[in-house]
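Training component of the fellowship. As part of building independent skills, the fellow (R.M.) carried out the full modelling exercise for a liganded target. The chosen ligand was adenosine-5'-triphosphate. The inputs are recorded below so that the supervisory panel can assess the work.
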Amino acid sequence: MKLRIAIQKSGRLSEESLKLLKDCGIDINNSLNKLKAEANNFPLEIFFLRDDDIPQYVEDGVADIGIVGENVLLEKNKQVKTVNKLGFGKCRLSLALPKDKKYKSIKDINGLRIATSYSNILSSYLKKQKINAEIHEISGSVEIAPGIGLADAICDLVSSGSTLLTNGLKEVEVILKSEAVLISHKNLGKQKNEILDKLLFRIQSLKSARHNKYILLNAPDNKLDAICKILPGMKSPTILPLATKGWSSVHSVLQEDQFWEIIEKLKANGAQGILVVPIEKMIL
Ligand code: ATP
Ligand code: ZN
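Fellow's submitted model of the complex:
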């Protein structure tokens, strides 16, 4: 029994999707320009598809799981389960106007022609905001629509905003924030669910590792109590004596969001030679 995963063939999610599998220790046979590949050391088959098709394939059960942007998932509105957010492919779906057009509030969108590839998401957003506008669905190069007179505004994906800028547009509303997610077919069955659980366990340990750092520091023994109180750690810090008498080395794990605050307190409490190193995997 094998689990079949659909990932984007070539585009912004491809590299990170493959890297995720690789970081999970999954070794994939050289896959360039192929539709399908197999893992050597994990019961996984990989399908390379256009991202737009992935929700449908997973709903139909042609693929068991898939990696897509939340933007695509929401737009396609297929019957699939969202299993996990993956933390890459971050972008936002936004409304943008020519930069010299005045904009105070969403009301200024009333009556405009908006070009987008996301007509479902956009129309439900406009409905909620009680705005009447004309949606022009186009499949690509949305950002040039105002320049060629096809539309007055656009609704498109933005990450840095540089594409908008070079096309003389300004972002005026964020409709959706999106990142890549792992989706799954509604009923995988027992065996496939077991494989998925194995994969999820590995993904989880990567995600935990990404949010944590390993810290080592030296401190005089009389400061150890104070320092241990500052460090959260997985259980409690490890303390090892240094060759220099009266000094110890303290090892622990720090969460990224508390990082600077804790480092400052540690320094204030006599810690020296602080080293912070990335963690590759973390099994909780
Ligand atoms: P395909 O040929 O597979 O249909 P595509 O051109 O539709 O590819 P890409 O541009 O490769 O798709 O984007 C894939 C996904 O990457 C998007 O749906 C979105 O979730 C994410 N993404 C992240 N940042 C951006 C960005 N700045 N612009 C567009 N998509 C982005
Ligand atoms: Zn696409």
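The panel noted the following from the submitted structure. The CA atoms of residues 117 and 129 lie 19 Å apart. The two ends are 28 Å apart (CA to CA).
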